[in-house]
Amino acid sequence: MKIFRINEQELTEKILTLLSFASKAKKLVYGKENIREYIKRRKLIIISSDSGRRVKRDVFKRCDIFNCDVLILENVDKEALAKKLGMANLSVIGVDDQGILDGIIKVVERGGASGKIESV
After folding, report:
1. In this structure, are residues 63 and 69 in contact, taking their beta carbons and an 8 Å threshold?
2. Which of 27, 31, 62, 78 has its CA 20 to 30 A from that of 37?
3. pTM, whole model, 2 decimals?
4. What is the DSSP letter of 23?
5. Contact present, 27 and 97 (Cβ < 8 Å)
6. Distance between CA 23 and CA 96 in Å, rounded?
7. 20 with 85: CB under 8 angstroms?
8. DSSP letter at 21?
């Protein structure tokens, strides 16, 4: 499991744009049980900066078990993430479209973000 922290505004905007495409295509995964199932079969979870400690601990533990990477958007809170995606109060999401997911991963890699293993 790698944890990527994105705090550059330009990269964040690109990622949010890709997430809004996924939202319009109804390819976002959210909700506790849906996220738990998603982690078992995909490779990236996206978390807002102000997600609760319990939420992060649960997601990190499951991502570690199933080798799923985590992307933390450092300058996007739950409210801003939800507003951008046309929803209410989102702290953890997954993308169920491989093309959009690949695009997000490319933005992260091109932006120079390096994954680091951290504990929470």
Report:
1. yes
2. 78
3. 0.87
4. H
5. yes
6. 10
7. yes
8. H
